[in-house]
Amino acid sequence: MLNHIHYERRIVTTALSAVVPIAIVALVLVWSGDYAPHVRWTVVAVTVASIFTATYVLHEVLTYPLRSVSNLITALREEDYSLRAHEPSRDDAVGEILAEVNALSELMESRKLEAVEATALLRAVLAEIDAAIFAFDGDDRLRLINRAGERMLNAPAARVDGLTATELGLAELLSDDAPHTLDRKFAVRRSTFREHGIAHRLLVVADISRALREEETEAWRRIVRVIGHELNNSLAPIKSISGSLEQLLARDPLPDDWRDDVASGMRVIGSRSEALTRFTRAYAQLARLPEPRKQRVQLAEVIRRVVALETRVRVTLAGESVTVDADEDQLEQLLINIVRNAAEASMANGGAVTVHWRARRGFVEVLVEDEGPGIAATANLFVPFFTTKPGGTGVGLVLSRQIAEAHGGTLTLENRADARGCVARLTLPG
């Protein structure tokens, strides 16, 4: 019954319930006794005054701490952390409550300060990022934009805030089927996040044209450096021998063995010209790699055909029956290149080659392990036209990796961890 009464009325009711019966008994005893009338009325007055005084004091004692706690909690709700209970004592329940409220206030104040500092740092970072960043709410209205975004839209944040993606011309970039690149100049990324339980969408548009230009320039520098090296290696002896032959033929009379010297010089010129022809043919092959025509291919059969071509070293096979979606001709060319490299590396030490393959979690892995001297430096392995082999074109590994990546796979070359030599690791989708 008392639970349905106002808390402060319950205090008064409880106090009266405890004091009034005692006061009534006291008054009955005084009134029924042999006392003068003024004594009786004095006792009545004192009793009534005591009842009201005791009730008031009890009411204030019980409600004042609760009002203090209420004021402190109200301050916390309004994010005012300067209000504190005055030196609460932990010797009683009320003191413990006030002390805990003070501790909570200090904790929330520190957390708010951390949040403010983190937000300030985030805004500073977003402002300095070169990529344009846009945040849209559930109605596709712009809620956040950084400086790069302002430059992209050619408008300040105050003017575009609250506009829809359609009004900003960004609706197409927000769609799920939008491309990840725009005009080969911008990289587009989309993601989602929640704020106050409401889903928001984040759009990041990064200008990659400068990075692409720098990467393209560096690639051209490497290619020109290697091409220049190859051309100099061929043209320098051709020029030297041509000059010597010209001087020889200008002599009068000609020496007796001039025909042999001319023939020898022409053979050298022909040999270097043949090397240049191979070099340009390899360059054309690298530049015109066609798109793979994929079909289901029995991997074991292709590997056995490739290994049958290699008779210089012993090649061991180990693998299971698996099929892959691949262009059979390109896959065979890829395997020929890496098996040939492994065989030539193993020949230096009289070693062998091991080829094994397996299916693993949605992809197929082919390992070609040799017993050669290993790789001294890996930085230039996949640089076009770089080679350490006499007569090599420096195209085989580059072409092989292009074939692997065109099939959605990878090709890596690294030193073996279990023995001397290196391993070529080819992965293809299963």
What does this protein structure show overall?
This protein has helices at residues 7-32, 37-77, 93-128, 147-153, 157-160, 165-168, 171-174, 209-250, 258-287, 299-308, 328-347, 396-406; strands spanning 132-136, 142-145, 181-182, 186-195, 198-207, 295-298, 315-319, 323-326, 353-360, 363-370, 410-415, 422-429. The protein is α+β, with helices and mostly antiparallel strands and 430 residues long. The strands form three sheets. Strands 2-1-5-4-3 form a five-stranded antiparallel sheet. It has a five-stranded mixed sheet with strand order 7-9-10-12-11.
Brief sketch in words of this structure:
The protein is an alpha+beta fold. The protein has helices at residues 7-32, 37-77, 93-128, 147-153, 157-160, 165-168, 171-174, 209-250, 258-287, 299-308, 328-347, 396-406; strands at residues 132-136, 142-145, 181-182, 186-195, 198-207, 295-298, 315-319, 323-326, 353-360, 363-370, 410-415, 422-429.
